[in-house]
Amino acid sequence: MNRFNxxxxxxxxxxxxxxTGSIAYAKALKKIGIFTNEEYIRVVKAxxxxxxxxxxxxxxxxxxxxxxxxxxxxxxxxxxxxxxRKIHTGRSRNDQVATDLRLFLMWKVDELMKKIVDLQKAILxxxxxxxxxxxxxxxxxxxxxxxxxxxxxxxxxWMLQRDKERFQDCRLRSSVLPLGSGALAGNAxxxxxxxxxxxxxxxWVSENSIDAVSDRDFIIEFxxxxxxxxxxxxxxxxxxxxxxxxxxxxxxxDEAYSTGSSMMPQKKNPDSLELIRGxxxxxxxxxxxxxxxxKGIPLTYSKDLQEDKEPLFDTIETVRASLEIFKGVVxxxxxxxxxxLAKMDDEMVFATDVADYLVKKGLLFRDAHKIVGRLVxxxxxxxxxxxxxxxxTYKRFSTLFDDNVYRLFDLWHSVNLRSAxxxxxxxxxxxxxxxxxxxxxxxx
Amino acid sequence: MNRFNxxxxxxxxxxxxxxTGSIAYAKALKKIGIFTNEEYIRVVKAxxxxxxxxxxxxxxxxxxxxxxxxxxxxxxxxxxxxxxRKIHTGRSRNDQVATDLRLFLMWKVDELMKKIVDLQKAILxxxxxxxxxxxxxxxxxxxxxxxxxxxxxxxxxWMLQRDKERFQDCRLRSSVLPLGSGALAGNAxxxxxxxxxxxxxxxWVSENSIDAVSDRDFIIEFxxxxxxxxxxxxxxxxxxxxxxxxxxxxxxxDEAYSTGSSMMPQKKNPDSLELIRGxxxxxxxxxxxxxxxxKGIPLTYSKDLQEDKEPLFDTIETVRASLEIFKGVVxxxxxxxxxxLAKMDDEMVFATDVADYLVKKGLLFRDAHKIVGRLVxxxxxxxxxxxxxxxxTYKRFSTLFDDNVYRLFDLWHSVNLRSAxxxxxxxxxxxxxxxxxxxxxxxx
Amino acid sequence: MNRFNxxxxxxxxxxxxxxTGSIAYAKALKKIGIFTNEEYIRVVKAxxxxxxxxxxxxxxxxxxxxxxxxxxxxxxxxxxxxxxRKIHTGRSRNDQVATDLRLFLMWKVDELMKKIVDLQKAILxxxxxxxxxxxxxxxxxxxxxxxxxxxxxxxxxWMLQRDKERFQDCRLRSSVLPLGSGALAGNAxxxxxxxxxxxxxxxWVSENSIDAVSDRDFIIEFxxxxxxxxxxxxxxxxxxxxxxxxxxxxxxxDEAYSTGSSMMPQKKNPDSLELIRGxxxxxxxxxxxxxxxxKGIPLTYSKDLQEDKEPLFDTIETVRASLEIFKGVVxxxxxxxxxxLAKMDDEMVFATDVADYLVKKGLLFRDAHKIVGRLVxxxxxxxxxxxxxxxxTYKRFSTLFDDNVYRLFDLWHSVNLRSAxxxxxxxxxxxxxxxxxxxxxxxx
Amino acid sequence: MNRFNxxxxxxxxxxxxxxTGSIAYAKALKKIGIFTNEEYIRVVKAxxxxxxxxxxxxxxxxxxxxxxxxxxxxxxxxxxxxxxRKIHTGRSRNDQVATDLRLFLMWKVDELMKKIVDLQKAILxxxxxxxxxxxxxxxxxxxxxxxxxxxxxxxxxWMLQRDKERFQDCRLRSSVLPLGSGALAGNAxxxxxxxxxxxxxxxWVSENSIDAVSDRDFIIEFxxxxxxxxxxxxxxxxxxxxxxxxxxxxxxxDEAYSTGSSMMPQKKNPDSLELIRGxxxxxxxxxxxxxxxxKGIPLTYSKDLQEDKEPLFDTIETVRASLEIFKGVVxxxxxxxxxxLAKMDDEMVFATDVADYLVKKGLLFRDAHKIVGRLVxxxxxxxxxxxxxxxxTYKRFSTLFDDNVYRLFDLWHSVNLRSAxxxxxxxxxxxxxxxxxxxxxxxx
Lengths: 444, 444, 444, 444
What we know:
- Four copies of one chain form a homotetramer.
- Chain A has 444 residues and is mainly alpha-helical.
- In chain A, 62% of the residues lie in helices and 5% in strands.
- Chain A has helices at 2-5, 8-11, 15-31, 37-55, 68-80, 93-129, 149-174, 193-199, 209-214, 217-243, 271-295, 309-332, 337-342, 351-360, 365-382, 391-397, 411-417, 426-443, and strands spanning 134-139, 142-148, 176-177, 204-205, 251-252, 334-335.
- In chain A, the strands form three sheets. Chain A has a two-stranded antiparallel ribbon. In chain A, strands 3-4 form a two-stranded parallel sheet. A two-stranded antiparallel ribbon of chain A has the order 5-6.
- In chain A, strand 3, helix 8 (193-199) and strand 4 (204-205) form a beta-alpha-beta unit.
- The two termini of chain A are 48 Å apart.
- Chains in contact: A-B, A-C, A-D, B-C, B-D, C-D.
């Protein structure tokens, strides 16, 4: 039962948050006369020593240490005696753990935001450097229209930008101090919660003690933001896995991010990307865990809530690693622009341009679409390409065709046609990169 | 296959968003010369008529109508002829459907926000009116400390406040216009996307066309916010279900929100609350659906995305109904303050106060906790209550006990001890209610 | 509230199960003297008429009809008067709905099993007909070793075989009669449950009335089996979507199972497969819904259980349609064996065979693997193929190489090397097909 | 990247399965001449030593050990030299890991089945011993009808019986040997797979090598069975948590299975049960993880599959511990039959019996239900009980009431009325216990 009940095995990662919280709480206790000044100084000194013990791997967990909170208090009492037995005055594990988790989460969100920015920088750098590569754009995994490789890269930049926004929102909503809510009904020692919040860098003090100890929204919201972020990475991983097949051949992972086969000597498998894709399922499952747990309990605190920690810790670590790995992939993956071009050799990616051409000549869009549909089928049957057709043949499909139709069959021409804001035209991508840089500069 | 493929059966609810989008797009097409002014006027008029046909249930869906977009265009062409065949110029279903969904979601979020405010108002009113009822507060479903019924009610107010914040954040991130992104590569007709955004009340224009047609973050974020909101309601439903048991007897649902049994004539079942609790699973499942779908696809648009709609529509309707039902429950549920008091008759809810009393007399918290623990066990064995013990007996447990200990055994005294911000003391609840009112006034 | 509470809108699909159950229950009531023989005959006649009314779409639902059970009883009483008011004697909606759901599920499982068999037959037929096509086999989406197209097809056959087993197990566990369990405590009218079970083709009678009305395992187990089945289809869909890209070009979907683009005239999108892939998320979400609902309630019946129905009905319909669509895809998809061959033109798929060759010549496996690894890198750098190397070069990598090494570079040779049971050698596939046919013959 | 990629940190628990598989594979390699007899003996001896090293915690993992498979092979080669470099001949990590996982799962299922039986035995013992306790039965958490405590207990017995069946089915479907399937295309060394299966106690040999390395159905099916099992425990935990509230007071957890509060000296919290309830969410999340991972990949092996292990291992450990804890709870929880009786003091649980009484007197069920409904409302208003009413008053509600109505108001009478198979009548529960014992005897 002890093994089942105790959480020290995993909640010890909260040590810094727990000790930081206790240091602030000691100050608050001094203010209301529970600690003398001298006691307070000794307690803070001892707590900082314990922090160091943890940081240096020197803290020895005892079998009686149920969780990080009892472990720290036990050690504190070993060190300072009686004052250690006062640190929990007016506090409950319920408001304590909620405070620890929020502090911890805010710190970790800050770390993850930096990792996202690092990945965004890698994207910006690469997009800027490789802003002259045309590749096929896909919908339904079918070639659609030519796009810039840099435009593709930048799409991830903007997704990550939203991920950061969600993290920021979640961080803000985490910045509400529960400490001073007691077990559920509030603190009976006239503790100064506003000062506590200031001390611990919380933006607000919780408005209702019952809500304060019951609430784990901030973790669910974080897990949800992480699930979306991982889903983003998974989709790009999926693209890159497909593109690194021999059949596509667009990209080639660096050795550091691929592995060989135990049986087949020729294999070079995109394991890093497959792991990211797989770990997305892991994070989604973690979100499912906590939602199901929270949905199944009444207010306020029930021990079920202990199940909030492992999904959270596991998710943070998974997201952190995935962001780093993906950054490495972005930095090191080789591209093969020649193969990208070669795959568009049948010129089908120009079909929309041909239809638009007719529209610009005055045809109704639906008619233009239909005529080009017919033309495409004809080309396919004959095994011909757009650029090979004589104008006379074009004329048979529509008299609106003209000599200048041949100008369409140039990939750069096609790319630069999409010049509306956010399109793949080079000018638009240059603008995106500039915007992106500006955003990053503003934020950090 | 058609039945499998077509989405008109459920996406027809998007009609207003789709038509609104098309009206704006028509204006943009006029600006770039695709529509003459006269054509534009006819098109807009026809679209408004179609809007009315839908609103009045007069629109007749044809077997050829794959989805709401083709249905509207088909009808438009029936009405105006050739100009109808131009409305899709430069547009793709990919940017169109993303635009429709965002518009629709923003509108629906506004509606749901109002429903939340209604529920919050019901809470405020009730908390204000019933601000003199003391009840046991629970952790682990065990009696912990006395709380105010109004404090309990207000805890939901603050949860809902966070739910609104999440909705607002999500709405803001939905307010990014994808229209003008084409199939994936952008718009080739120099369409004025900024004007389009203004016309449709979008705050921003999407920065990258690939992201614009691929992205469904806004739906996932919304579903996640809804899952959290429903989880909140589920937890309160759980409390109220337990409290409406004969054994607790704290609350009594109105007939309108409970139902009888087909077999047992005496039953009055809290069906409304059980449904809300059950439907929370439904919304969590909807979130899982979309996360799994999105995680399984590469960029950009794949038909898998069609599975985004039903979970969204179903969730909106479920949340809307649940908020209304819960408001009804808050408004009509009878409470039994006498039973709440009676259940605290064993006075165990004062144990914390007794320990705190000793602390205030100078005992170390851990020692006070231990002494009161012993005292409680002794009382239990003897079948006695705190208030029945003579001072001499108290003294046997600690000499710090004094005549004034008997002042503790008053529920209002206990409640008002928790006077730190957010505590259950009456003054704190009054402040919460005042704050709550101010917040609602500011927002609407 | 009524709209929130009532389930008739969706549970009407249970009409046949409900009426069948009532017919059997009427017989049981006759046996214990509640119905006279004459009453029994009238009741049964009327119930059969109501069945017809439902079947012919003539049944008119009244606003007072809460669910299918009250609707049927209301109509019965309209038809026969007083005896209708007796049909519910000793019965509760709790045991009634559990009985209906089990009956319904058993019938639907039978239907789905037939659909699986149909798909298996389509696979067998195609594998038999196209048993001479060699294609690259993939791990990590990288070419690994040559396989037979028919071997690939047959892998789905065996997955589906397991799906049927799971359905059968689930059906068996559904075949336990809850009727006669009352609300939760049992039936007080000495009803003959054994006879009821016989009448309704249940294999067993439930052993415990509390369990009988609480249990929804059979639905969860079914949803789980469906989630696995859909996951199977999704994985094949993923393969086929990738293979129908221009870059692979291995398969070409029939027009009936693909659709065009609203913007790009050349597109032919594998919508059918993408929908199946997407709908897998839908079914997984349905499973999550019910698990979360069930996890959140105590015993026995709570209204939360009403949420068991829509996920069930939706899943049945989704799986049914997906199986049919996939069968159509298997039957109609064109393959391009020439492209499959062409993509193996670099001969890298022979690498394992070369290593195995060295092992058979006496080299240690790990050394052989390493040598071929070096050889492969050398070939890649030089842009050469295995078959182009002179023996002297081979000798430089290992003196064990011999003239007969060239025999390896034949795809059929490679395929037929894998002759251990279950391998891709033609003889093995022929055996699989034979076994498959035998299995299907046995079962139907 | 190494830390991201390597699985040795968690897959080392597979050591016994991996080594057992390798011992069998060594024998098969001897048979086809890869190993001499002498080499085979040395290899087996060394593998057994490695097994011991793991078992005794003496195995030292090296930084180069990617996973359990490479670790074992590395150590084997250290011990025996060249023959170690042959053990992987014809084998791939793909068929190896699938074999390991299946072996491991079968063993673990056997262990868990024993744990279930232990829990079932505890239930049987307690139900037999406490077969004379009447308590209120609930639907919607409202008192419905009196039931036997033993009947309630036995309901869990039957749920667990189904759980075992599901485990057995899953074990059977796990008993299919993938070894000899190579990377995906089969084994090219004429390995005798039938003999391998026999050696490793597999019932079957996989029929298709592609399926063999792709398939993880057996894990999903196991996780699903575990999710259902945990859901069962969670529902009983929920009941017991509610029943251990002061307000119900039906049960009292042993000290070993409850814990105190850090703040409130009087608290005795049902932590053990809350943890089980919480951990149900954990297992559901684990199922979600794997379903999402599998759904997102094509055939055959992708590295995403590495994410199958942690959810599996974590689930096994969680279920094992939960079963043990729950057995302890069943064994040690004190019940308070007096409180169970006291809570039925208002006699409302007899309402169904009164209605049934009227039915047996000849009234139509619906009319009887209505009359008793009226009677119940009248009693409630007057604050009276059934047994207190004079016959004259009864007659005012229905002339069918008779002197013998007072016999109804006896809990045992009520309980024993439900005598149909599976009902709560004592005879039925005795029969259930007898059946239960027989089943367990048969199985072990």
